[in-house]
Amino acid sequence: MTATIAAVGAVALSLAGPAAHAAAPLEYAALGDSYSAGSGVLPVDLTNLLCLRSTANYPHVIAARTGAALTDVSCGAAQTKDFTGAQYPGVPPQLDAVGPDTDLVTLTIGGNDNGTFINAVLACGSAGVLSGGQGSPCKDQHGSSFDEQIDEDTYPALRTALRNVRAKAPNARVAVLGYPWIVPADADPSCYAKLPVAFGDVPYLRGIQAHLNAVVERAAEETGATFVDFSRASEGHDACKPLGTRWIEPLLFGTSIVPVHPNALGESRMAQQTLSILGLG
Length: 281
Description:
Blueprint: H1 2-20, E1 27-30, H2 34-37, H3 58-66, E2 69-72, E3 104-107, H4 116-131, H5 137-142, H6 145-168, E4 173-177, H7 202-222, E5 226-228, H8 264-278
Parallel strand pairs: 1-2, 1-3, 3-4, 4-5
């Protein structure tokens, strides 16, 4: 009788055994620039102050919600070239963080290549101050030059960077995030004190951002990655909106030491949209 009970128990344990083991967590590598790093959002990741990375950035939010094992090498001011080369002394190439066992990769990249994005914001802000907010001085001075840089330099660099990610992590799902809107669709005179872009340059600057996002999406599609689009999700959450609504901090009178970047709400919403697009929650 005792032997029979023991045998039955052994069978029961063998049947229950596989169910008793939880699924292994996703091996998750987060790459990218300051929008990935959450630069300016507290608390700061003290393990690498050069990168001004936050422990409340969207990669950390995604990892917390999915239980993923996160390796976060995102870094403020990163460019596509920093995927294969050291951005700073002691900061390895970002692609060192991915490999055949990587299950998920997220990244935001391209805005710093050639300084195109930040140069456009600064140029339009400076021109707006000098013009007192009138006209379209930034567009008048720079014309299509920013768009040409995006097509000629940023797009091929993005495509190469994403191909390199795929080569290093052939089994991973790769999610490439676009950049949430910085300026509204139409000029908001009440925003000029916070984001001193001339009224006629607001659609010009937004058009440059839309173009950048379009080439990010194109490069993602061509390399088998998933593009996470914020063109609708971030509408109405630009830097001109009040705190608690805006995802992006303004150039002046904001709450972050890194202006024109996502705040904690923005990072959280970027994570939420990414999880939704990937079907992870």
